[in-house]
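Comment thread on ticket #2218

A.B. wrote:
> Attaching the input chain for the structure job we discussed in standup.
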Amino acid sequence: MKKKRTKSKRILSKKKPEKKLLLSFKQKAGRSSSGRITIRHRGSGVKRLYRIVDFGQKKIDIPAKVLALEYDPNRTAFLMLLQYDNGDKRYRLAPYGIKKGDNVICTEQAEVKLGNRMKLENIPVGTDVYNVEIIPGRGGQIVRSAGVAAKVAAKEGKYCHLEMPSKEVRKVPVVCFASVGQVSHPEKRFEKIGSAGSKRRKGWRPTNRGSAMNPRDHPHGGGEGRTPIGLTHPKTPWGKPALGVKTRRRKSTNKYIVKRRQERKK
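C.D. wrote:
> Ran it. Output below, let me know if you need it in another format.
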């Protein structure tokens, strides 16, 4: 039985991906170089090829045409295949609403148009952007997941204030590049996996609850019947705090955070 395409995926091309822009990697199944499992519940799954995506500005000041919108098994967003005026082809993250045949360009200053990429200093306040640089010349590193966008909130000297998808306001140098628009596939958050087989094909193996294990296997284990975990806060299998514990270690970038992200209401 042939699986029907969802409404959001009907815009995607049915052609095969560009062969010159593909790489193959050996599956590691969650194991390290020594063969030990370092990521639990991973393995098997359908083989996938990696698409080489241009997150930076390798093709600057050269207009490009959108040849196709394609699915990428390695990320939640869709990709757009661009053909530049010099004949070269590249993959880039597709913005929501772009269509086959549209023209885009990456340059320091351009028209504020969907898919165009330019420096933050030339993007008006209030514009949605994605695939944003945080270190000049390194390429886009943040705001790359399906359906997200950051908003240019203000400009102050050498820095631009960006309101992140988490509502955190962060300072980014105005000489950094960003793409105009919102990342494609915003419906991703509403999609349901639907079956165990679909989960397996994505590379996830069966997962067991800690409370169903023995005490020697997990801190949540033990007890008779459906027993609570018996702890004030949940823990990992190795006894460390889990679920909601702050893991951010890079404190040197605190000076760039103007407003912290809002806590989720429970």
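A.B. wrote:
> Thanks. Noting for the ticket: The chain has two domains: 9-23+46-187, 209-260.
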